[in-house]
Amino acid sequence: MRGVPLHNLVFLMTSPADSRDVFATHEELILVLDFGGQTAQLIARRIRDQSVFCQLVRHDLSLERIRELKPKGLILSGGPASVYDAKSPQVDPRIFDLGIPVLGICYGMHLACQTLGGRVTPGSKREFGRTECRVAAPDPLMKDLPTQSTVWMSHGDHVENALGSFLTLMDTATCSFAAVKHRSKPVYGLQFHPEVTHTEYGGQLLANFVKDICGCHGTWKISSLIEREVATIRARVGKKRVICGLSGGVDSSVVAALLYRAIGSQLSCIFVDNGLLRKGESDKVRDRFQNHFKTDLHVIDAKDRFLNELAGITDPQQKRKIIGRVFIEVFRKEAESIPDAEFLAQGTLYPDVIESGANIDGPAATIKAHHNVGGLPEQLGFELIEPLRDLFKDEVRRMGLELGLTEELVWRHPFPGPGLGVRCLGELTAPRLAKLREADAIVMEELRLAGLYRQIQQAFAVLLPVHSVGVMGDGRTYEEAIAVRAVSTDDFMTADWFPMPHEVLQKISTRIINEVRGVNRVVYDISSKPPSTIEWE
Ligand code: XMP
Fold first, then answer.
1. pLDDT at 143 over 50
2. Domain extents for the chain?
């Protein structure tokens, strides 16, 4: 973990918000019992694509709790273990007698088959990657699937002797149990992963499971979620005041817009201008939250304070620490000056909650250390409101649009908490930051003009701490260099450099060298992550 994302304001301790029963408020619920598979979160996302609410829960959730939650279906996820290992994670076998449809995926299938009469053994051949799969018998699970399609296999174990209790629905050249169904119970198993995009008809299979087999109608809508959250916030807040920290990013903006809809003038927003923001950022926040949404907006100009504290510092980690500390000090002082404020609203998202293991019925997964974990300290003394803690990023974007935020904001590339502080390599001075800000604005403008902004997940300029020789007119120059970075990525954990069309690179380069004083060279970063990172510091 390289640092704390101050502007995400993500806070992962168990909060009062945890105590509400999020499940109880959704009439159609699918539970994913999580066995630690890398794609378990993806299953939940795919199910939600069907407008059906879906949550990840611990694999050993008690039978009583499952009954109480009344799910329409259960999905047993994949996982790294083998079911025949002595310490392998198990489920309460009585879940197969509840009459609730169950879909086991990979490890989940092995568990279902083993519990219901099959035998699982280490296969002589491991199967990984794309595999051709054939529909062997008709079933509602296979509705609208072609006879032959590609699936994504990733397993070493095989089910044997399953035929006594299970029917084969799909097979491959080497696996006669690619998809199975129990002869008398609503229990299904898939040896492959329907949740990954490499499985051509995976979305269709999951839709068939939740709609045709579990009987869900797809009633979960962002608009009804907004109504429900608005009502919950109003009931909880009463006449008190809520503080919301704005970063200019998507999550905190959606939280603020939602709170504004719920409690209007009882909302106070704090935006700290740390001097490390991009061009026009501060004006955009004012425009959005003072002019459009008429919130009580506190813009704190702390540029000098940050720059003074950062003077002479070049080490990236030290920069992050200082930026983090000063942010908390500035934020705290302002928050304390707002009378009657009892609540602090934050943009914690569902993946943060899952990864922290902080949700009540949540998976017992280990905590993943990533940048987007951290936030304001507990001692600030406010009660937390985290209205996005059940949502994935794409759902937050949809909610933002529904609440009236612009496409431009909702699709904004992520911007790290320490901002330009970690993109201005070497010492942070006002003139160097101004150079970087201008260059970055040119990169953004040209990507938008070329219609490439949405195809790239993150792009920016970096000011390098090197001088190189150039010629301009009749004179020799000795000036700084800008690196342009643009990456394609699904999850920001791995990334490819974006194959930028040459004419776009040419325009960016010409404009930066002509328009930004003190820069005589532009380079394009062609490194993937790993082994490089997305940011340079
Ligand atoms: P790296 O550079 O590690 O970045 O490949 C992955 C993602 O995390 C963002 N990032 C940060 N975000 N505070 C943040 O809030 C940080 O200190 C920080 N460092 C990197 C980066 O922009 C990318 O989206």
1. yes
2. 29-213, 221-410, 423-524
Query: Under CATH, domain 29-213 is a member of which superfamily?
Result: Class I glutamine amidotransferase (GATase) domain (3.40.50.880)
**Which sequence positions are flagged as catalytic?**
106, 193, 195
Q: Which two tokens stand for residue 202?
A: 């995976």
- Whether 40 contacts 449, CB under 8 Å: no
Residue 450 in this model has a pLDDT that exceeds 60: yes
CA-to-CA distance for 163 and 177, rounded, in angstroms?
9
Ligand 1 contacts CB of residue 414 (under 6 A): yes
Rounded Cα gap, residues 133 and 135, in angstroms: 7
Quick check: do 29-213 and 221-410 share a fold? yes
Domain 423-524 maps to which CATH number in 3.40.50.300, 3.40.710.10, 3.30.300.10, 3.40.50.720?
3.30.300.10
Which of ligand 1's atoms lies nearest the C-alpha of 535?
A: 2
pTM: 0.82
Which residue owns the Cα nearest ligand 1 atom 13? 5
pLDDT tens digits along 395-437: 999 999 999 999 999 999 999 999 999 999 999 999 999 999 9
What number of other Cβ atoms are within 10 A of residue 202's Cβ? Answer: 23
**Residues written for the chain:** 537
For ligand 1, mutation pick of 535, 536, 537 (most atoms within 8 Å of CB): 535
